[in-house]
């Protein structure tokens, strides 16, 4: 993945975080908190929480109201869960016309699911930390 593509995704305003955690010690909490502190709006996706980081949490990506524009979906779920996440991204894109990028955090990779997203015109980053890349490029 080129730095230009990564930098383009970092131009996002709103990031939906699938697997966002309420536990401050987990990367799935620390990374979205960092992003929020750097001006991004975070939309937590976690069926076990009502709110995270002061934002309403949603059970699924497709539950986020269409008037909430999502630029990038950041994923903190196991690699085997990525195909279902891509299903949600594609459904969301069809319904709301948003989601330009899919970001799979460090250690998360699913080439087949990534190819499906890319075929739909969605930029995909795999196996990289959004916080690290933001710090490096911004």
Automatic annotation (TrEMBL):
Lineage of producing organism: Archaea, Methanobacteriati, Methanobacteriota, Stenosarchaea group, Halobacteria
Superkingdom of this protein's organism: Archaea
Pfam families with a match to the protein in the record: CoA_binding_2 (PF13380)
Designated name of the protein: CoA-binding protein
Gene3D superfamilies found in the cross-reference section: NAD(P)-binding Rossmann-like Domain
Cleavable signal peptide: none
Residue span(s) of domain CoA-binding: 9-108
Coiled-coil intervals, chain numbering: none
